[in-house]
């Protein structure tokens, strides 16, 4: 079985983890199971590793703050006829320790050893640093 690898993606338009959760609440899932799908242009070449327990880690305002477990990758044909990758994820948003990331386009691979740890479920809004402080430090390049 392949080792897992994660994907890293900017959560454009979100100011906080709550914004992502609210977006999920206000935009119904296209699947009866409640899974979420994010469509992206490029298909991961390391598909077997991504689907072997990988997650999509969301970068919000320059800081990794949460993740969603990847269920599968679907082919999605856009209205323009171009085939794209639909990253299908579990609906649960899991908060993680904050980890700063510089802006980038598209998505990047994130090796399991480099992924921030999940926060304990009972402390869902806690982190090693409060979210606002992690964002402020990332903004000035200190985290």
Description:
By secondary structure, the protein is an alpha+beta fold. The chain has one domain (5-139). It is 16% helix and 36% strand. The chain has three helices and seven strands. The protein has helices at 17-26, 47-50, 131-139; strands at residues 5-10, 36-40, 55-60, 63-77, 83-89, 94-100, 107-111. Strands 1, 2, 3, 4, 5, 6 and 7 form a seven-stranded mixed β-sheet that branches. It is globular, with a radius of gyration of 15 Å. The protein starts with a strand and ends with a helix. The model has no long low-confidence stretch (mean pLDDT 88).
Gist of the model:
With 143 residues, this protein is an alpha+beta fold. 16% of the residues lie in helices and 36% in strands.
Please render the helix and strand layout as text.
Elements: E1 5-10, H1 17-26, E2 36-40, H2 47-50, E3 55-60, E4 63-77, E5 83-89, E6 94-100, E7 107-111, H3 131-139
Parallel strand pairs: 1-3
Antiparallel strand pairs: 1-7, 2-5, 3-4, 4-5, 4-6
Low-confidence stretches: none
Please outline the major beta sheet. 7 strands, mixed
Write the H/E string, N to C.
EHEHEEEEEH
Global shape: globular
Summarize model confidence as the mean pLDDT.
88
Q: How many structurally independent domains?
A: 1
Helices, by number, come to 3
Judged by helices, strands and strand pairing, the structural class is alpha+beta
Strand content: 35-45%
Counted beta strands: 7
CA distance, first residue to last residue: 35 Å
The percent of residues in helical segments reads 10-25%
Radius of gyration: 15 Å
């Amino acid at each position: 079985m392949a080792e897992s690898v994660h994907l890293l993606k900017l959560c454009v338009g979100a100011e906080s983890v709550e914004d992502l959760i609210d977006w999920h609440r206000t935009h119904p899932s296209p699947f009866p199971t409640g899974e979420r799908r994010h469509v992206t242009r490029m298909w991961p070449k390391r598909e077997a590793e991504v689907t072997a327990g990988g997650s999509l880690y969301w970068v919000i305002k320059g800081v990794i703050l949460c993740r969603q477990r990847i269920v599968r990758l679907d082919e999605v044909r856009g209205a323009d006829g171009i085939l794209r990758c639909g990253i299908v994820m579990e609906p649960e948003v899991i908060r993680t320790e904050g980890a700063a990331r510089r802006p980038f386009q598209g998505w990047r691979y994130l090796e399991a050893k480099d992924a921030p740890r999940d926060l304990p479920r009972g402390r869902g809004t806690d982190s090693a640093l409060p979210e606002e402080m992690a964002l402020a430090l990332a903004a000035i390049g200190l985290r």
